[in-house]
């Protein structure tokens, strides 16, 4: 049985039948819904099971949806689900603030270079710490500290000009020969330098040092706690003149740093 045409409703015979869009058409009835241009199977476009040409094919347009209570509820639910997923991802990735970097040849070379530099610096610091500070570096702070302590210990009444007694003859001895060296009974002779020294006189008093003292001027002598001072002569209430028995140096010394034996 022959079907009817979808447009005109008449019987469609096989010689003029067009089967398209789930319907049967006459060839003459298969045309655009808008401009009535005859179409075929190659140039038609179907929309809601109706044929259209390319120029008059209906364009889809979006329509605005009102914010109904149901739509608002769905929107809020979607936002809550999004926040829950975000928090879950955040908690999973918490504490993983680093990214895996592939060990490329360039990165391996840079890492090796940094390790070598670190090893070199470590060995340099180790050698410096093992060798220790040089003699000049170690002696300078100690000398400064001793001078500061001696100036602190000296009372105010002792800050008086130094008077060297004119009665005793004055000689000079090098600072390097504070401790004379003897080799096989031979003793090196003293050479004249800037430190003043007086020949020891007979019958002088003997004193013992109770504090360490470092000479602040050229006419003073340095001594340590326990040293014996011989041939001591009183200059004034604050200063004396004598010879350190341990070193052989002669000069002025503060009276409150020693005690009589």
Automatic annotation (TrEMBL):
Q: What InterPro entries does the entry give?
A: Lasp1_SH3, LIM-SH3_domain_protein, Nebulin_repeat, SH3-like_dom_sf, SH3_domain, Znf_LIM
Tell me the ranges covered by the SH3 domain, including all copies: 202-261
According to the UniProt entry, which residue ranges have a biased composition of type Basic and acidic residues?
121-130
Subcellular location as annotated: Cytoplasm, Cell cortex; Cytoplasm, Cytoskeleton
What molecular functions are annotated in GO for this chain?
Answer: actin filament binding; metal ion binding
Q: Which domain of life is it from?
A: Eukaryota
Q: Does the keyword Acetylation apply?
A: yes
**SMART domains per record:** LIM, NEBU, SH3
**Protein keywords:** Acetylation, Actin-binding, Cytoplasm, Cytoskeleton, Ion transport, LIM domain, Metal-binding, Methylation, Phosphoprotein, Repeat, SH3 domain, Transport, Zinc
GO cellular component terms given for this protein: cell cortex; cytoskeleton; focal adhesion
Q: LIM zinc-binding domain: which residues?
A: 3-63
| Spans annotated as Disordered | 113-172
- The keyword Ligase appears for this protein: no
Query: Which residues are listed as membrane-spanning?
Result: none
**What protein does this entry describe?**
LIM and SH3 domain protein 1
Q: Which organism is it from?
A: Callithrix jacchus
* Lineage, opening ranks: Eukaryota, Metazoa, Chordata, Craniata, Vertebrata
